[in-house]
């Protein structure tokens, strides 16, 4: 346990590094540790992300206790980041005071977005694959991002459409996210924080740009940015934050608006308890609840995101599962459990173990009862309603599993929404704390958690990653499937290059190219 004190936000005096006591060396052996400490917003944000429990200071008290507890399961590379942040991070004043009447608070919920009709599917997929955080091309080939996105989206659309058709002809994401926004707004009002809540989707309506326009029209002065992904990934929250950053950088109003980001919140007590409640409830539906294997299934990311770009997604996911299991154990629920990753796209290696392979393996080992728990997302969507409820359920029965259950996504669970409201309120004192000048704001868009810094911590060299839908790669590969996929994509790329350079070819004949007439 490391415990320090955090300067209250009521103070407006600047502090200097000399106010930080020289801490003794912090090693994993230093379990109990106390010293007075002023945390910069960035330090606090990082500490909150890597620590199980960081009590954010209240508005009125002079100093507030921060409890940062690190457990064995805290990943080794994050601990030094947290400690570094605690010890060496800048100690700027936190210039916010109590809320004043003219403040207009906004909360921007970031989410992925989904096609609302079958006609939307291909353009939605285009937007997704055109995102350089989803398909990362070598710099030299960046000009191919859009043609390639067009090509892949056209190829994938029929399969995706089938999926969306089977869940009612479109994604429920917009409806659910809007409902969450409304519930969050109500919860904030009940807690005496009159805020407007906006929804900004990355790949479909209402786009992030549309939400930002509304935020400007409404004259919001303090904005809390809250990605609706419990765990951070470069491909989800990271992508949305990068987009926001580029929007903010070019906009005079936004550069001057104070704002803050809650990068991930999987460790929050309200979220963990809400997940445990749902699991406990679903377990009761089995004849022999204690024999059920709890199967956490998270959306995967390509392995290279974690191993080469430093995406904390896997570490955060594992810690999240640990925390839920700890909570269940407190309730004397000690079922066997496992974590696997679903929804891989393309022939590159994704995070393992894969959900489908794990289900087959559990069946082979004689497991008879499985409870699937979608863990990376808080709304029902195609991957819960189709992939888990239909495909994996069928696979489970084929593999010898006899009893199947699935935990619903959190949606508008009151405890969860109330906890999100608390997260927003706790972050308010840090709104705008880091941006001391327009210039600084332009360079580092999102003050708390400075997105640039945050991303840089994971993705320091912005290295090019093998795209999730592989374009090409020379050399020996692990399987014939991979090799075939790569050879095919190489051929496709050559054709695409020829098309783009000559303006002739089968895509032009089909009317797929040119993209803009
Ligand atoms: C934490 C959640 C998610 C991560 C991580 C993620 C990474 C990721 N996804 C793709 C490719 C696709 N994702 C698609 C849809 C989709 N993905 C998520 C969540 C995460 N994605 C959601 C919530 C949805 C929307 C579902 C809906 O109801 O509309 C799709 C389209 C659907 C399909 O055709 O399967 C694709 C494709 C990649 C490549 C990736 C990481 C790099
Ligand atoms: Fe996805």
Automatic annotation (TrEMBL):
Gene Ontology terms describing biological process: heme biosynthetic process
Recorded metabolic or biological pathway in which this protein acts: Porphyrin-containing compound metabolism; protoheme biosynthesis; protoheme from protoporphyrin-IX: step 1/1
Low complexity: bias regions: 8-19
Keywords, alphabetical: Chloroplast, Heme biosynthesis, Iron, Lyase, Plastid, Porphyrin biosynthesis
EC number: 4.98.1.1
A GO molecular-function annotation: ferrochelatase activity
Coiled coil: none
Parts of the chain that traverse the membrane: none
Annotated Pfam families: Ferrochelatase (PF00762)
Annotated segments matching region Disordered: 1-21
Compartments in which it is found: Plastid, Chloroplast membrane
GO CC, alphabetical: chloroplast membrane; mitochondrion
Domain of life of the native organism: Eukaryota
Membrane topology: Peripheral membrane protein
Predominant localisation class: plastid
Catalysis: reaction(s): heme b + 2 H(+) = protoporphyrin IX + Fe(2+)
Family recorded in the similarity comment: Belongs to the ferrochelatase family.
Free-text function comment from the UniProt entry: Catalyzes the ferrous insertion into protoporphyrin IX.
Annotated NCBIfam families: hemH
Protein name: Ferrochelatase
Species for this entry: Theobroma cacao (Cacao)
